[in-house]
């Protein structure tokens, strides 16, 4: 039987038509009409005024942190339950990440932990320069609580919606809640450009500044003049062409991912697993379908995933939280409840992400559910 992958790309729209346009017009460059068209289409979809296409979600985060003025010695708060790319750019900027645990309902940044962390930071006279809030697995964070808290302390929010294109919270798109926000179009994301990302902002001057840094910080003169350090962070016109075709089938992809999730829920209804709780206003994109092993399952998520791999099923444990990563062991972290236990440790220990591709059939999902049941009972 063929291996089922976690989240392979599905190219089903007019990607090749746009790529051909790029070739025929000889725009094989990190700028061009496909890039502009993708930026305009995504700014409209995410309901943000300005968009800048980048080579990756990670470079988008880096530019956004720079735009927020994050620099050497600053503190930046960040969701702990995420992929390392959410916080690595904080360190690129010479700043110090402080990790915030998950809320047990949203699974994203805990407003309780954030509230304590902000109060401590104020007392210490060192408020963070920004808070990076992640919409993990295409689930919204609790912006109803997080945004007023950040506003109260005057701290801007950078929304990492890398995994959340198409998700909404109270009808508003994920990616529209931060002062700045980012998406990723990595190969495994809900839409891909083979590799790429986008940063959104609310002021044209910020977009201009990020564009400047993303294109090697060249001063506007004919000879090459530099007064700042720059990066080569723009998205290629050819990759943007793929993204345009992908965006046209986003809604189809969303309904395919929802079908995966609903099917797994039904197929695993009597298995010793639990699905993430629903919460008011959250409409997920179900980028990945995932479930949590119940306490009576003796195996960890890692052990279960390894056994599934032997059956040619590619799955993954939920993200290992950043406060538990060796590379960030010296960083401060705030738990949801205020004690030693972190909600996100438990999510990692119990969470299993299931094959979630757009082209899964019901037979594939039955195969996954039966394999999982054969391992955990
Ligand atoms: C939550 C999160 N943030 C950031 C990134 C970085 O995106 P990229 O891989 O496009 O650099 C990813 C994905 O890889 C991600 O899942």
Description of the molecule:
By secondary structure, the chain is α/β, with parallel strands linked by helices. The chain folds into two domains: 15-248, Type I PLP-dependent aspartate aminotransferase-like (Major domain) (Aspartate Aminotransferase, domain 2); 250-376, Aspartate Aminotransferase, domain 1, CATH 3.90.1150.10. The chain contains twelve helices and 15 strands. Strands 1-9-8-5-4-2-3-14 form an eight-stranded mixed sheet, sandwiched between helices. A four-stranded antiparallel sheet has the order 10-12-15-13. The longest helix has 18 residues, at 250-267. It is globular, with a radius of gyration of 21 Å.
């Amino acid at each position: 039987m063929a291996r089922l992958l976690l989240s392979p790309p599905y190219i089903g729209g007019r990607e090749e038509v746009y790529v051909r346009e790029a070739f025929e017009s000889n725009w094989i460059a990190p700028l061009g009409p496909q890039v502009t068209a993708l930026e305009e289409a995504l700014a409209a979809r995410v309901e943000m005024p300005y968009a800048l296409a980048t080579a990756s979600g990670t470079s988008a985060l880096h530019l956004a942190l720079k735009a927020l003025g994050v620099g050497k010695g600053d503190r930046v708060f960040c969701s702990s339950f995420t992929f390392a790319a959410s916080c690595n750019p904080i360190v690129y900027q010479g700043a110090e990440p402080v990790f915030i645990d998950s809320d047990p309902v949203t699974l994203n940044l805990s407003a309780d932990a954030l509230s304590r962390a902000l109060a401590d930071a104020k007392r210490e006279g060192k408020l963070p320069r920004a808070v990076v809030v992640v919409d993990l697995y295409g689930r919204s964070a609790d912006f109803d609580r997080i945004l007023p808290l950040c506003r109260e302390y005057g701290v801007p929010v950078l929304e990492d919606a890398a995994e959340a294109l198409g998700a909404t919270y109270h009808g508003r798109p994920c990616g529209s809640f931060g002062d700045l926000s980012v998406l990723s179009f990595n190969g495994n994301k809900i839409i891909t450009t083979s590799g790429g990302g986008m940063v959104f902002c609310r002021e044209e001057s910020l977009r201009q500044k990020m564009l400047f840094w993303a294109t090697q910080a060249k001063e506007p003169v004919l000879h090459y003049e530099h007064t700042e350090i720059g990066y080569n962070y723009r998205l290629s016109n050819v990759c943007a062409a793929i993204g345009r075709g992908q965006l046209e089938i986003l809604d189809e992809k969303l309904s395919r991912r929802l079908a995966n999730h609903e099917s797994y829920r039904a197929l695993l209804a009597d298995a010793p697993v639990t699905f993430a709780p629903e919460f008011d206003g959250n409409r997920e994109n179900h980028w990945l379908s995932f479930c949590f092993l119940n306490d009576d399952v003796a195996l960890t998520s890692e052990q279960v995933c390894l056994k599934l791999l032997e059956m040619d099923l590619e799955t993954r444990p939920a993200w290992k939280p950043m406060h538990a990563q060796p590379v960030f062991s010296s960083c401060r972290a705030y738990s949801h409840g205020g004690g030693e236990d972190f909600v996100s440790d438990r999510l990692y220990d119990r969470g299993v992400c299931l094959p979630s591709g757009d082209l899964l059939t019901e037979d594939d999902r039955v195969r996954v559910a039966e394999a999982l049941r054969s391992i955990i009972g």
